[in-house]
TrEMBL record:
Keywords: Ligase
Pfam family, one: 2_5_RNA_ligase2
GO molecular function: ligase activity
Domain of life: Bacteria
This protein's name: 2'-5' RNA ligase family protein
Length: 175
């Protein structure tokens, strides 16, 4: 693993056109940092388990990703209500059906990969903003709704390199 590329986390990327819509929403929320990030649901590295323990080879991680992906079809999903994580400015869409995300999370947690600890239970979500807002704006964000179904068909390994999120490996979920 490149020592300059840490932390490492696993995500499911939203397919188009949903990915672009999330970017547009993040931009409308005036969260330039979030708008610069890929639209995704974090599978490991945020909650449930933490980021991957340093020292694991990207090739090994990619191999486990490939093995795990073989047991999953592309995920069809719908967003639930927006939530605000307690005592934060993080607003995120919840998922109406968490089961496929929990199953994928479980497969990685029980794989040969090693993860740091996380203080938070696993909660699949798609972050839309994380900047400070007024209470009026917070109330507006909590009212956001998205009723259309969307798909997620790419599992990706991301790392932070030089302050930028970098995609280090991807695997398509079999159709």
């Amino acid at each position: 693993m490149d020592a300059d590329t840490q932390p490492l986390f696993l995500v499911l990327e939203l397919d188009e056109p949903a990915a672009s819509r999330i970017t547009e929403l993040r931009t409308a929320c005036r969260d330039a940092f979030r708008a610069s990030l890929p639209a995704e649901i974090t599978v490991t590295g945020s909650s449930g388990v933490g980021v991957l323990v340093p020292g694991q080879a990207i090739e090994e991680i990619a191999g486990v990703m490939q093995e795990v992906a073989q047991g999953f079809a592309p995920v069809q999903a719908c967003f639930g209500p927006v939530m605000r994580f307690p005592d934060t400015n993080i607003f995120a869409f919840t998922m109406t059906d968490e089961a496929p995300f929990r199953a994928l999370h479980h497969q990685f947690v029980t794989s040969t990969l090693k993860f740091e600890r996380s203080a938070f239970p696993f909660k699949p979500h798609c972050t839309i903003s994380s900047i400070p807002v007024t209470e009026e704006e917070a109330t507006r964000r909590l009212r956001y709704r998205w009723s259309e179904a969307f798909s997620l068909s790419t599992l990706a390994l991301y790392g932070l390199r030089g302050g930028q999120v970098t995609r280090l490996a991807t695997v398509s979920l079999p159709c």
